[in-house]
């Protein structure tokens, strides 16, 4: 779907074993051009991973089949066996807020139960290429959560970035997409991607989520005024 190098290559879908989930796996895999591995949420346990089961770079969790108990089991398994995998939630209720999602520690995408397969594929493809897929509302709640929970002073690492790089990382920290950043700075989207690539190397992060967290921890609130 894109020629730009992917940040993540492999996908695991956690859902129930059903005809619907099998059709979703096949349709999404075809649209993305990648194989998708399914783990049944009903068999999810530490013993599964002790037997050698693996989880891929991106984990997609079907919220329509999740209960509090199953989420707790998932969290325990993630902490021990795949702490670096990023997470996308599908079939979320449209009314969900960031406060409902705080236990998803590597969250990079939220999709709703009204989203069709084409929108899902579009968003997952963006995630595979290192972008976030969050509504503006959720992104702003995420940012406000970080600003309320920590008093941050601007770090020396931020000061060493060029003026343009500082502008771009601040806009990313505000939840803007590459296209929105490009529009605000009157540059092309490719220029934004090039700058972000350089920024990621300078601040030693792999992806957009890590960069967003870095921005919250290294850019003082006064810089966002």
UniProtKB/TrEMBL annotation:
It comes from Vibrio amylolyticus. This is LuxR C-terminal-related transcriptional regulator. PROSITE patterns: HTH_LUXR_1, HTH_LUXR_2. Coiled coil: none annotated. GO terms for molecular function: DNA binding. GO terms for biological process: regulation of DNA-templated transcription. The keyword DNA-binding applies. Residues 154-219 form the HTH luxR-type domain.
